[in-house]
Specification:
Length: about 400
């Protein structure tokens, strides 16, 4: 797989979209690696400053040489934070946007001291809404990520065996996708969240609750990494939950399928078929002009109609509160298919994931990544929907 650089036209278009949302601020000062890469083409260690009026300023500390190779914009050295006001040309009393959802307090205090009497506002919401709509450049990479994921799922029947651990199966699938070009890790924007590239859990362990903002938890491998695949051994005649991501040059596609060694009990098969029906109902309505709230309410009503309302998204008292999410450079992008007024627009890549969770038994659910178009949602992770019985 080729190492893809961002064309200048792509970066210029993104910067213009942010500037168009700067009526109330003088500039946006970005430190988070993904946001920096989105607006400059490089995720090296430094900062990106986008003034409302004037050219963006890219300053990097480590590695300056890499940043110059990767970014289509001019990159300057960053020696320290003390001279930010002069280096960035920020006027006294300016209003500056910061990524307040992820910026560490230590950075905030340093910026506040360097810029003296500047005032600060949160610019993260604007950036997340801009990033939610993908360009043709991004859609191409998302489609390649989806194809990688399809090929990765197709290798699971070759590796799954009775008695192997969840971690071992995860390693086998990850190895296959790493050889296809998968970067081996993924970005998640939430504070204190650690995310493996996939949740592969068997039987009851898939329904073990965890802190992660996800329908599923899992035992994990330790108290410091308490979710995802663990050391439970895979058994026959139980659902094996495989939820993982493909990543192509940073762009994510997300999918879930259920595997089994032999047949699983009919009631669990019916629950899985219900999740597929719910996904299809959402996909039919996921078009420009609809809202995330409407799609979430549709999921809830379909779940209740089919008789799974008490287990869709988790058991009562532990529901995850959403049925889908945007994917892009991070796993948890906008829109979130939850009781929110996020509007569906053309060019979004959205993972739809109705999961039915039975404590003590397992998780039955499907997930696919869709591209929203003017004529409806297009499934990118195109692979068989039925349970993959081995």
């Amino acid at each position: 797989m080729d190492y893809v650089l961002h064309p200048k036209s792509e970066i210029d278009s993104r910067i213009k979209k942010l500037k168009d949302r700067m009526d109330d601020i003088d500039g946006a000062l970005l430190f988070q690696a993904v946001d920096m890469c989105y607006f400059s083409g490089t995720a090296q260690d430094g900062l990106v400053y986008i003034p409302r009026d004037g050219e963006p300023i890219i300053m990097m500390k480590r590695s300056l040489e890499r940043a110059k190779e990767e970014s289509p914009l001019e990159v300057r050295p960053l020696k320290n934070m003390r001279n930010l006001k002069e280096d960035l040309g920020i006027k006294t009393g300016a209003t500056i946007g910061l990524e307040m959802d992820v910026l560490p307090c230590s950075f905030y205090f340093r910026v506040n001291k360097a810029l003296e009497d500047a005032s600060f506002v949160d610019v993260a919401e604007r950036i997340k809404h801009i990033r939610s709509v993908k360009s043709e450049f991004e859609i191409k990479l998302a489609k390649e990520a989806a194809q990688m994921l399809v090929e990765g799922f197709s290798t699971v029947p070759d590796h799954i065996k009775e008695g192997m651990t969840e971690v071992e199966l995860m390693c086998r699938m990850e190895s296959e996708m790493r050889l296809m070009g998968h970067q081996g890790s993924l970005r998640f924007r939430r504070f204190n969240s650690i995310v493996p590239i996939g949740h592969i859990m068997s039987g009851s362990s898939a329904a073990i609750p965890s802190f992660l903002a996800s329908p599923t938890g899992g035992r994990g491998t330790s108290v410091v990494f308490p979710h995802g695949p663990g050391y439970r051994k895979i058994k026959r005649n139980e659902p094996v939950f495989v939820d993982t991501v493909g990543i192509c040059n940073g762009y994510i596609a997300d999918a879930t399928r259920i595997f089994s060694l032999g047949k699983i009990e009919p009631g669990l098969v019916e629950a899985y078929e219900a999740s597929c029906q719910i996904e299809e109902a959402i996909a039919r309505e996921m078009m420009p002009g609809r809202t995330a709230r409407e799609l979430f309410e549709l999921s809830e009503s379909e779940g209740a109609r089919l008789g799974y309302g008490d287990f869709l998204g988790g058991p009562v008292g532990s529901k995850c509160g959403f049925v889908g999410h945007g994917v892009g450079l991070e796993l948890d992008e906008y829109p979130v298919l939850a009781p929110l007024d996020h509007e569906i627009q053309e060019g979004m890549t959205i993972a739809v994931e109705p999961k039915i969770i039975y404590p003590g038994k397992g998780v039955l659910g499907v997930e696919d990544t869709f591209l929203t178009t003017s004529s409806g949602a297009l499934r990118l992770t195109e692979m068989p929907l039925e349970i993959w019985e081995v």
